[in-house]
Each structure stands twice: as C-alpha cells, then as structure tokens.
Amino acid sequence: MSTENKPIEQLQETFTHPMPYEWSIGIYGSKFFHEIRENRRFVGIKCNSCGKVYVPPRRVCGPCFRELKDLVPLSDSGVITAFSVVNYPFIDPNTGAQRPIPYTYGYIKIDGADNIFSHIINETNLDKIKVGMRVNAIFKERSEMEGNIQDIKYFEIVG
Fold first, then answer.
1. What per-residue confidence (pLDDT) applies to 135?
2. How far apart are CA 159 and CA 58, in angstroms?
3. What is d(CA 51, CA 112) in angstroms, rounded to the nearest whole number?
4. Which residues of 92-120 are buried (b: 16+ CB within 10 A; e: fewer)?
5. Pick from 135, 141, 152: nearest CA to 41
6. What tens digit of pLDDT does each residue of 7-32 get?
7. Half-sphere exposure (Cβ direction) of 33: Cα atoms closer than 13 Å
8. Cis peptide preceding 57, ω within 30 of 0
C-alpha cells in the first residue's frame, strides 16, 4: 500500500535497535585536527579569488563558490564576537556525559580568519566577560590529545 494516503500516525516507526553511523570530516578537517594535535596551532584555508580565510578549513568559498585548496597557518588567539552563559543541563554528544553547568559558549574571530569559530570560554561571570575581549586557545596536554575538537580545552581571556 502506498504511503501517500496514510494518516501521519500510521507512518511513524519505532526503532528498537541502535543505528550506528560514522561521518567523515574530510581531508581539510583532518588536517585541521592534525595541526592542533601535532603543532598546537590552527590552520585555515584561503580563497584565491576573494582572499577570505576560513577556520576550520572548508572545501568551498561561500561568496565565490570556488574550491579552496590553500591552507594557511593561523594564530591560536582571537576576539570574542558573541557569547552566552549556558545554565541548562544536557548530555554532551562528544562525551556522552552531562556537561557541567554553567559554562560559556562563545563565537571567536580567530586572528587572520574572516569567519567565527565557536567553542567554550572558561569564564562564566558576566561581569568579567565582554564582546571584544581577546582570548587564547588552551589545548590539552600533548599526551591526552586525540585529534578532535576536544583537544581545545577552552579559550581563556587574555589580561
């Protein structure tokens, strides 16, 4: 029987088995995490047409629709462009454990990049954090690094 005329209630399914999946971060995502793990630095990718630099690297420039190929070294510092102190508990999909609250999630414009990078900032006191403040990435100890976003522990306010 076709599903075209079935009520929505009859189209719902219940899954009783896990549906494991894997995804690829691609060649540039792999290089991004490799540089963090091995050299404790960020790399971006530069558009040869408009000159924009993206971090993390991506395959295509949004404004130009051109394929990107040129990786460029970037700073591990930047400026907070927006932030939010989160007080709502949830299960962190990266760890499977409840994320400790409160924590601050921020948008950071990495020096030398034209887009923003989102990550944790290690300050939750609203009197001590402002848009425009400079931050530095704090990385895990080299022996603890796994080649993923968790290798960046957080960004720390400078000064």
1. 98
2. 32
3. 11
4. eeeeeeebeeebbebbbbbebbbebbebb
5. 152
6. 655 555 566 766 666 667 888 989 99
7. 13
8. no
**Are 134 and 111 contacting, i.e. CB atoms less than 8 angstroms apart?**
no
Per this entry, what is the length of the chain? 159
| Cβ-proximal residues to 12 (8 Å cutoff; 6+ apart), any chain | none
Q: 42-91, pLDDT tens digit by residue?
A: 999 999 999 999 999 999 999 999 999 999 999 999 999 999 999 998 88
Question: For the whole model, what pTM was predicted?
Answer: 0.81
For residues 65, 69, 74, 78, the Cα torsion angle rounded to the nearest 10 degrees is 20
Pairing mode, if any, of strands 42-46 and 53-54? antiparallel
Q: What angle do CA 20, 23, 27 make, to 5 degrees?
A: 160
Alpha-carbon gap, residue 81 to 40, rounded angstroms: 23
Q: Which residues partner with 104 through β-bridges?
A: 85, 121
